[in-house]
Amino acid sequence: MSKQEEEKGMQRKVDGMSCNIINELRLEKKLCDVVIMVDGTEFHVHKNILCGCSPYFMVLFTKGWYPPDKLSWV
């Protein structure tokens, strides 16, 4: 079985406590490394979390589609 096939079959699991800690950090704007703006509302977020949840953000942040020093997205 190829690595890609193995990854497709793997389920991502994060316990509730870890999710709560990550969310607390986000709400306190700690360790956030990018800001996404939607209709004038700012969301301070963690790129690694976005990459783990979305193929779009994975490509955006890992394939050089944005300047590395850019911190805000509208």
Fraction of residues in helix: 40-55%
Rg, alpha carbons: 14 Å
Please give the oligomerization state of what you see: single chain
Which residues form runs of ≥5 with pLDDT under 50? none
**Average pLDDT over all residues:** 79
Which word captures the global form? Answer: globular
Strand/helix succession:
HHEEHHE
* Biggest pleated sheet: 3 strands, mixed
Task: Give the strand content.
Answer: 15-25%
Give the strand order of the largest sheet, numbering strands 1, 2, ... along the chain: 2-1-3
Specify the number of helices. Answer: 4
Number of strands: 3
Classification by helices and strands:
alpha+beta
Terminal-residue CA separation = 41 Å
Write a structural description.
By secondary structure, the protein is of the alpha+beta class. A hairpin with a 2-residue loop joins strand 1 and strand 2 (41-45). It is built from four helices and three strands. It has a three-stranded mixed sheet with strand order 2-1-3. Helix 3 packs across helix 4 (55-62).
